[in-house]
Amino acid sequence: MTYTVSPLVLGTILSGVVICLIAGFVWRLRMLPKCRVSRLFVSPRKPSKPGVADPVLLHLKGVTITQLRPSGAAFINGKRVDVITEGMLIDRGASVEVVAVEGMRIVVREV
Q: Which residues of 49-73 are buried (b: 16+ CB within 10 A; e: fewer)?
């Protein structure tokens, strides 16, 4: 026993499936920012301007978190900041001062 399906019925079913897929996709795009799962993938913070360090850091003092040889990290103005020295090695835990902010480069000197 063989069953045949009319092309009209098959086209109607296929059209319904496509319409449901499109509607589901549009609904999901609208709901994604509001759902709990999206918070795992989307940061709530607004990004800062790319390629520009905070000029407010100029002449502030901080403490190195890592050894600077010549680059590393320092704790300045309550934030962890990637820094670079003027060329010399600075040990971890040393006091530093920001002497220049050049784009994303934050140059420090030991005090």
A: eeeebbeebeeeebebbbebeeebb
In-domain check, residue 71: yes
> Could you tell me the residue range of the domain that residue 81 belongs to?
55-110
From the number of C-beta atoms within 10 Å of its C-beta (0-12, 13-18, 19+), residue 100 rates as middle
Q: What does pLDDT average to in each consecutive run of 10 residues of the chain (111 residues)?
A: 83 94 88 73 65 76 94 93 92 94 90 91
For residue 95, being part of any structural domain is answered with yes
pTM > 0.90: no
Q: Are residues 61 and 105 in the same domain?
A: yes
